[in-house]
Amino acid sequence: xxxxxxxxxxxVPTLDEIEAARVGARAAAPVVVVEPDPAWAEAFxxxxxxxxxxxxxxxxxxxxxxxxxxxxxxxxxxxDVDLTVAHSGAEDEWLPDLERAGFTLRVREPEWxxxxxxxxxxxxxxxxxxxxxxxxxxxxLMFRDWLRTHPEDRDAYGALKCDLADRGxxxxxxYNNAKAGFVYDLYERIFAADPEHDHEPQGR
Length: 204
Hints:
It is built from six helices and five strands; from the N terminus they run H-H-E-E-H-E-E-E-H-H-H. The chain has helices at residues 15-21, 39-55, 95-100, 136-149, 151-166, 172-193, and strands at 61-65, 79-85, 104-109, 115-120, 125-131. The protein has a five-stranded mixed beta sheet. The model has no long low-confidence stretch (mean pLDDT 95).
């Protein structure tokens, strides 16, 4: 059965795995989803500028991803950014400079492509740090670009996000778990439509 090179099996993190990945204390806050804001593009530009100033040439890639990167999509008002560095697991090579620039490490997941996530404010942002060659940033770009060009899927995703927010989630990671089935199913369609690779969709 052919599978796309960026395919992942359907998995949802357990509560123990979520807690193990957290760095620092979590402040419970309700998940809020708002109407799309054209200012999100400029907010990303501000974050990208701070990252480039902090890391200079060590910032090998900076991409606006997630829902705020899709015009017309309702989202949490948090800018998601993928930052590529040489070795995300080598925190001493990039984290101290990001901390001096006002970012705080919040997630460490060595088993998931050495993913790290730092959080910033003004604008509020989550910066996902990966190494060169990581698969996940490429998945993020495919997902973003699909939603930018498929308004029916964009609107269905936005409706799901609003419904979940209305249920009163107070933890962003559990909110993400609740979206996981929709996201997986959409990736299956994205991969099947990719003209560069064969993919036979697989159930969860």
